[in-house]
Amino acid sequence: MERTITLIALFAALIAALGLVPKFDLASGVPITAQSMGFMLAGTVLGAKRGALAALLFLGLVALGLPLLAGGRGGLGVFTGPTLGFLVGFPIAAYVTGALAQGWAAKGGFILPALAATVGGIVVLYGFGIAGFAVVTGKSIAASTAIMAVFIPGDLIKAVLTGLITQGLRKARPDLVVA
Amino acid sequence: MISLTSDIRTPWHGLPAGPKLLALCLWTLALTWVQVVPVALGACAAVAVLYLPGGVAFVRQGLRLLKPLWVFAVLVGGWHVVTGEIAQGAVILLRLAAAIAAANLVTLTTRLDTMLAVVERALAVLRVPPLFRKRLALAVALVIRFTPVLAQKGSQLVLAWRARSARRPGWHLMVPFALTALDDAERVADAIRARGGA
Amino acid sequence: MSGTETKTLAIRLQDVRLTLGGKALFDGLSLGLDAPRVAVIGRNGAGKSQLARLVCGLTEADSGTVTVAGVDVAKDRKAAIGTVGILFQNPDHQIIFPTVAEEMAFGLTQQGHTRADAAAMVADMLAKFERANWTDRAVHTLSQGQRHLVCLMSVLLMQPRVIVLDEPFAGLDMATVLRLTRYLDALPQHLVHITHDLDSIASYDRVIWMEAGAVQADGTPDQVIPAYRDAMTRMGERDDFADL
To answer: Do the Cβ atoms of A45 and B178 come within 8 Å?
Structure first.
């Protein structure tokens, strides 16, 4: 049980730290924040339940007023803003990613975790994100989708990278990584 | 870890967190009924007035927390200008500003430990088992303790990369970074077990 | 690296100013570190590590210049990486890749070598250190001293002209320190060695004692080290923890 608590807490801290460390250069020349990758990794590395809990713990602390979101954002304001859907979606995306990754338990490859991250981190996440955006702003689903679609290519790259990173982690700590 | 609470005292700092949070919920709910620009402007003005007792520096802190709204404002505002629905766009943005600014006000005037106390009380009211509450408190403490540690490790890894490469750090750095979190989790679990377990 | 190269290599800090976290660290520091073996000693917080980072170009001074063999190490990163290498204190903070071969090849591929060339160079280096069987070893199965060696080999592969060592042996056992020191002493590169281990630098060309971002003393080991020992002993005898 201690291990479960520390894994969840340390992964939440990792997601927070990803917001603090200067941007990684994720795809030759394109600077993107790696924080959203942290949620998908939580799923592939810790599994569905623990990954979702890590995401929830992280969001809880953001709500309490800690500036842990990339760019030093935090507080209740972010939950009243247009990204509400994505914030709600992160734990669910982590759960779905983890469930798929566990179910497909890749034997050494990166494609299956990447696929899991795509379904969880993009399909599910954007589902919630777009819905939330539509609700908060009062725009139609079609309009919201059009606006949010611009971020999808970047997140697709992140999903693939999640697969590659999971593969690297699996090689280093085979008994710790779930996917 | 430094929270977003403002160190500039306002009368709102002294209020208990529970009522503030409740007021915020009601306010956000009420805003969903705002449909016209004058009312939306009025709502923004009302929130702005609440910031005044903190003085200029406090207002500036509040504005800084609203900065992320700009990107969104440009996106949505631009969309509405293109489609010709300027009034509707204005209402959306003003409503959002009023909601977010109010939420930020609560964050700026409520300390982290006060917020945690509210959470604890809510969990007690909901009859959540004390063992779970204890573990949650432990988890929160661990995140606060280890986020700066991991951030520092991340910076060191970036430095190690830059010492051997003129290019910006790539995704490869995520592997040792995540490994640190996993390894630290093992060690801290041992330390907790050695002190009686969780 | 040709062992007969006796061309002096100029490491120059000119009027360097650096403020970190609101505190002024260096205020117009000018220093030349030309000798083949230079040591930097001083209390923690004196600015030794930041000096190391300035010499590598990892930190850019607020004003003033830092050049190594004519290269502006902060601005011209590509040239800097081929000129100055650095060994950090903790190998776990600088090893990025999981296997020895990948870690050692990293700098080479970043410099533009093909994978095949890099792999060949890595194999040569491992053979030179008689560790050919380390190629596919996972780094986390190596001991601390062995990891230090991996870091050293990785730096040497980039063929720098200067190697900065930021307390590279802290926490290692005596035998390991002696072995690693032997490797270092035999290197043709100029060394800038930051350390608390005063015995290991007794035969260096020059010792610089840093205190609060400025040079307290600068001379041969015989001149500087006894004075440093005296000062540290006196400080240690005080009960006052205020400046700890």
So the answer is: yes
At B57-94, the pLDDT tens digits run 999 999 888 887 877 788 777 777 777 778 877 888 88
From the number of C-beta atoms within 10 Å of its C-beta (0-12, 13-18, 19+), residue C214 rates as: middle
Question: What ranges do the domains of chain B cover?
Answer: 16-110, 130-198
Name the closest residue on chain C to residue B162, using Cα atoms: C58
d(CA C54, CA A37): 33
CA distance C127 to chain A (A): 25
Q: How remote is the C-alpha of A61 from its chain's centroid?
A: 16
What is the topology classification, in CATH, of domain A2-172?
Answer: Arp2/3 complex 21 kDa subunit ARPC3 (1.10.1760)
Closest-CA distance, B150 to chain A, in angstroms, reads 6
Q: Is C97 on the interface with B (CB under 8 A)?
A: yes
Q: Do C107 and B164 touch (CB under 8 A)?
A: yes
| pLDDT tens digits for range A38-55 | 999 999 999 999 999 999
| Chains contacting chain A through 3 or more C-beta pairs under 8 A | B, C
Tens-digit pLDDT profile for residues B40-57: 999 999 999 999 998 899
Are the Cβ atoms of A77 and B92 closer than 8 angstroms?
no
Q: How many Cβ pairs within 8 Å bridge chains B and C?
A: 52
Q: What is d(CA B47, CA B39) in angstroms, rounded to the nearest whole number?
A: 13
**What ipTM does this complex have?**
0.90
Token pair 């060394």: residue = C191
The structure's pTM equals 0.85
Distance from chain centroid for Cα C149: 14
Tell me the CA end-to-end span of chain A in Å, nearest whole number.
20
Nearest CA-CA distance, residue C202 and chain B, Å? 28
